[in-house]
Structure formats: structure tokens, C-alpha cells
Amino acid sequence: MRTASTNLSSYLRYLPSVDELLRSKTARQAIDLAGAAHATGLARQVIDDLREELRSGSRKTPYSKGDLLELAASRLENAWDAEQKTSIQRVINATGVIIHTNLGRAPLSDAARRAVADEAAAYCSLEYDLGTGKRGKRGGHTESLLAELTGAEAVLIVNNCAAAAFFVLTVFAAGGEVVISRGELVEIGGDFRVPDVLAQSGALLHEVGTTNRTKLADYQRAINKKTRLILRVHPSNYRIVGFTAAPTLNEMADLAHHNGLILYEDLGSGALIDLDEFGIVNEPMILSSLEAGADIVTFSGDKLLGGPQAGIIAGRRELIEKLRSHPLNRALRPGKLVYAALEATLDAYRRSLASEVPVLAMLSMTKEEIAARVSRFRQELDKRLGSNSSLQVKAVEGVSTVGGGAAPEARLETVLVAISHQTMPTVRLEQLLRDSVPPVIARIADDRVMIDLRTVSNVDEGHLIEAIARMC
Ligand SMILES: *Cc1c(COP(=O)(O)O)cnc(C)c1O
Description:
By secondary structure, the protein is an alpha/beta fold. Helices cover about 45% and strands about 20% of the residues. The protein has helices spanning about 5-15, 20, 25-35, 35-55, 65-85, 110-120, 140-150, 160-175, 195-200, 215-220, 250-260, 285-290, 315-325, 330, 335-350, 360-365, 365-385, 425-435, 460-470; strands spanning about 90-95, 95-100, 130, 135, 155-160, 175-180, 185-190, 190-195, 205-210, 225-235, 260-270, 295-300, 310-315, 390-405, 410-420, 440, 445, 450. The strands form five sheets. A seven-stranded mixed β-sheet has the order 5-13-12-11-10-6-9, sandwiched between helices. Helix 3 (about 25-35) runs parallel beside helix 5 and helix 7 packs parallel to helix 15 (about 335-350). The longest helix is centred in the N-terminal third of the chain and has 21 residues, at about 35-55. The protein is globular and about 85 Å long. The protein starts with a helix and ends with a helix. Bound molecules: pyridoxal-5'-phosphate. Pyridoxal-5'-phosphate binds next to helix 8 and strand 11.
């Protein structure tokens, strides 16, 4: 009888060396795809793991040298595949959440994609004036478009709305007090908390009123020598309803200006146009806020606006220019791809073709339109699946959501494609969809996989059908 230690040492003797593994066919492919240094790192990790398993006895079956090499090669392949999953890649969003934060918020319009790929990705006129042949203003055209669309005197674009809020508060309120209603000390999307941003900016929070009711007199009483700014925050992802009170923006502007203060409104989702016809009611418009007397408003580029991630600061020229010449501007400004995508998105608004912006097109789809798409989709799917499929496909009513911390009370009625399998568990179906190329992200409800075509573009329906067909 062999002792445990001879067993162990003989298995360990069979363990391939890193070099041996690297000579295998799989490894040579990995070297081609990942580069020699990275593939060697992965191979070393695979061999280390196997050695550890043999030593600890968690691998009991005696392996031949060939078996261990094969096992190591397949582990190497899996390690490489798993790593590829973490790279950023296009997915099909079948969740019905339009501004899906985990899936990159707003998908760009065709024009915006072209502007990024064909113009900005090359050498481009980012800071170059083609008329004079001299240095030009970075983002100048994009900012003029925004000024035109919002009615603002001037606009400055930074990385995101959180940066915009931080920037405004730092420059105009650091060392002083900011008056804000207790009903607006909100958290938006996990890591944007109004009190924390205020603290970071070096401004002191002076909270007034109550969670549900704040009156003009509350603001008035709070104003003292140290007050710099009155802040209003759009609660974005939640609403206070019932016994509520808040002064109008007009009243707040009068109060601020009477006391020589700045009125700053952080609008977040930022509607450039009236979104009533797109099914979103009560979403404040940037334009109205500026008209009512806000000196500065900030909003995101990739929420309801439907463009790339950006933070837009619009308002009085004198204030915007102060921000522009501040050293922080250099740290917070976006890259050329952002200006290009934003400019192309805004161009659609200017030509009153907002429905070219995917977010708005998806918002405006009616339940009837989606029902018609679902019925065509099911016909195509039935054709593809044939008669002996184990899948059950039904149309059921449901709701899509706006997402992205915007318009929480909007009810977007939809029709879902509900899929279940005779034997396979629903979680497995959902995983198969995620494993397809491009990956399909769907949700599970009532033990079925639910597909909402509202967020799936027409051109992706073919991919989606192929992905579903894999589940048979
Ligand atoms: C979403 C939001 C932010 C943060 O915007 P990002 O672009 O995600 O940085 C800030 N304020 C309000 C009111 C928001 O809705």
C-alpha cells in the first residue's frame, strides 16, 4: 500500500509546469488573444491552484500526466473566457428599464454614435477654430446649442451632474452657508447624497422646514451674514405626496436676489423639452427653471436628455464664466467623445426631432405599439422554434420603468414576452440569455423570464430570437 505522501508526491510530479501548459494548443490561442505576458500569468495561476488542490487533498482522484495537462488547459480557457466577460461590451437590454444605470444609462442615437466614431475619435476640431486657423474654445458649439435650447445666458459642461453640483457649491458657497429644505436632503442613486456633496464642497448646510412642508418664511429666517446660496434639489427618484408645501421657484428667486444670494437648482434628470407627450408629467424643464429666476441649474447628459454622461451647468453668464476660469474646471471637463455625442444629440432637439433620441423614442412607445411588436415577434419566434420546442411563450401585460432616478411615478404600460421551459429552471433560462452574443439582459417575474421589447431596438430582435432559440 502506498502512503498518502507518496500519493501526493506522485500526483504533484504529474502536474504540468507552466511552460508545458503554455505549449498546449489552448494556451497558444490564449497567447495570441491575450499576449504572452498575460497568458503566462493566467497559466501560472491555473497551475498554482491545481497544486494547492492536490496538496490539500481536495482533488482525490489519481490523475495521469495527460489528464492533468488537459484539465489545466481547460481551466486556462475558462479563466480567459471569464476575464472576457468583464470587458465592456454591448448588451441587449430586455429589462424595460429605459435609463438602466447598470447598463450605461442612455443608449446613444445613431447620429451621436457616428459623431463619436467618425469625427471625434479621429483628430478633430476640439479646440481649434477652422475659420481662423487659431486655437478655439473647447466644447464651444455644444455649449451654444445648450444655451439656445435652455434659454440660458451661458453653459459649461463637466463630467457628470455630481461633478457639476460639487463644482457650483465649491466655487460659490465654500466657507459659507447653503440654505436647503429638509425635504430635499436626498440620496440619488446610492452614492450621490446631497448632504455629503455639500460637506465635500466646504459649504455648511443650513436645513430648514420639515420633510413634507417648507415655507418661504423658513428660508427667510435662515438667511444670515454667512449665507451664500439657496439650493433647491429636484428629488428625482422619489416624491413626497399628500400634505406638502414648498414655495414656488419665483418666490425663492425673489428672496435670494433681494438678499444678494444665488439661487441654484440641481435638476438632475433635466428635461430639455416638455415631456408630457412622452408620458412623463411634472418633470421640471430646464428652461422653466431658468425663466423662474434660478441663477444656475445643473442636470445630467445621460438621463432624460438621452445623451452621453455629462454634467451640464446652465445659467447667468457672469457665474458660468467664473466657473469656466476656475482651476477645478480643468479637472472636471469631459473628453472630446462626450462633446461630439452630446452635440449630435442636441442637434436632434434643435430640429424638433427628439424622437431620434432613443430614450425619448422608448418613452413614447404606446402599449398598443408594443403589443403589435410582440405579436410580430412571437410569429417570428414560433417560426424559428418549430413545433417541438419545450418553451412556452406568452404575451402578458406589465409596466416598463424610466429608471436612472427619474420620474418615479410614471407608469409606462407595456406588453411583455413571458418565457418558461418545460424542464429547465427559470434562472437557467435567464443565464443562457446572458451567455449569448450579444448578451441579453432580462428579468424574472412569476417564475418566467420576462422580455420587454420597449428597450430592445428593432434591429436587435433577430439577435434576441436567436438567443431565445438557444434555450430549447
Ligand atoms: C442623477 C442626479 C445627480 C447625479 O447626476 P450624475 O450625472 O449621475 O452624476 C445629481 N442631482 C440630481 C438631482 C440627480 O437626479
